[in-house]
Specification:
Strand content: 5-15%
Largest sheet: 5 strands, antiparallel
Distance between the termini: 76 Å
Radius of gyration: 32 Å
Order of helices and strands: HHHHHHHHHEEEEE
Mean pLDDT: 82
Length: about 375
């Protein structure tokens, strides 16, 4: 019991000392130990990363689900760790209405048949949309959310602890200045050494965590590529579905189209010419070009690693070195890159003049 009382008293004294130090700093009555510039810059970058990650996540969620009520419902189900009920999206609902109308008018009638074909295509687009949303949620939103709820919370915790250690250090410095008796000065000097050591240790822990944000940026870049690929696939599917539908509608009897045009002219309305999308501009050739380009880029890095030679590469984005073994990069500059045996496949050795260090391949584009 006595031990617990003493411990509570010590904790209360420590808390009071920190509160006094914090208050005096705010009033300009006490000096404050400043963090080194590198650590301050890392803190600013981490906070910016957190803010922009939150904003991008929010806007992506709005893109994937524009209905705020549905988003709220899905959020509640997620927090309750329950599966949200399956629901039809807008394309599904439109497709279902068209199919029901087509069956009512009669599949044998031109209009009824056209409605059914349009409805089936709308349902295909609805399925593609669900695949796109699921892929984006897994490969894009989840990694962003994991950073905010995992890595950044750890950074926030260690940053707060660093603030506490800094207050303890400055409080110890203040007590040393006020100590007059030799015994009091000796005790204050010992306390200062201890608090300085704890502050330095916590600063190092915080710095290591903050430097990991560079790896987070590289990981989020890969997630962004996955998101763009999912979007490309989704829009490609939609385009191909509509091209196929247009071909099917174009095969309807010409008398049906002529009847519509005659009716429009008889009613005094303007004759409307609906342009057709040339089937020759179909998607597979576009996709194939993109795939071959991506394959060429991947093959270039593989060839470089196997040849043990060097190549010129253009830097795509700014990159801040996370350690002395890495090389900082500026967007659009050209550097020399080479492979080193045993190096991680996501990295190459970069060289700029007399400077040399590891660089991530996701920030590079090999030049011919």
């Amino acid at each position: 019991m006595d031990f617990n009382v003493k411990r509570l008293a010590a904790d209360a004294g420590t808390f009071l000392s920190r509160a006094v130090q914090f208050t005096e700093e705010k009033l300009g009555q006490a000096e404050k130990t400043e963090l080194d510039a590198h650590l301050e810059n890392l803190l600013i970058r981490a906070e910016n990363t957190k803010q922009w990650t939150e904003r991008i996540m929010k806007q992506t969620e709005v893109l994937l689900q524009p209905n705020p009520n549905v988003r709220l419902e899905e959020f509640v189900y997620e927090k309750l760790e329950k599966k949200a009920p399956a629901r039809m999206n807008n394309h599904d609902l439109l497709g279902q209405s068209m199919i029901e109308a087509g069956n009512d008018f009669g599949p044998g009638a031109a209009y009824g048949n056209a409605l059914i074909k349009c409805g089936e295509t709308q349902k295909q687009i609805g399925g593609a949309e669900r695949e796109f949303i699921q892929s984006s949620a897994i490969n894009f939103l989840t990694p962003f959310r994991n950073f905010l709820e995992g890595d950044f919370k750890t950074i926030l915790k260690e940053r707060k602890l660093l603030q506490v250690k800094r207050l303890d250090l400055d409080a110890a410095k203040t007590r040393l200045k006020k100590a007059r008796m030799p015994d009091a000065r000796a005790a204050a000097e010992q306390e200062l050494r201890m608090t300085q050591s704890e502050f330095d240790r916590q600063a190092e822990i915080t710095r290591l965590l903050l430097e990991g944000v560079s790896s987070t940026h590289a990981h989020h870049l890969r997630c962004l590529n996955d998101f763009v690929e999912a979007q490309t696939t989704y829009y490609a599917q939609c385009y191909q579905y509509m091209v196929d539908l247009q071909k099917q509608l174009g095969s309807f009897p010409s008398s049906f189209a002529n009847n519509n045009q005659t009716a429009a002219t008889a009613s005094g309305g303007p004759s409307i010419s609906v342009p057709t999308i040339p089937v020759s501009a179909s998607l597979p050739s576009v996709s194939a070009g993109r795939s071959s380009s991506a394959a060429a880029a991947t093959g270039g890095f593989s060839e470089l690693r196997s040849s043990n030679g060097s190549r010129k590469a253009r830097v795509l984005y700014d990159y801040d070195a996370a350690s002395s073994s890495e090389l900082s990069l500026l967007a659009d500059e050209v550097i020399t890159v080479s492979s080193v045996p045993g190096m991680d496949s996501d990295w190459l050795m970069g060289e700029r003049g007399n400077q040399k260090g590891k660089v991530p391949i996701t920030y590079l584009e090999l030049l011919n």
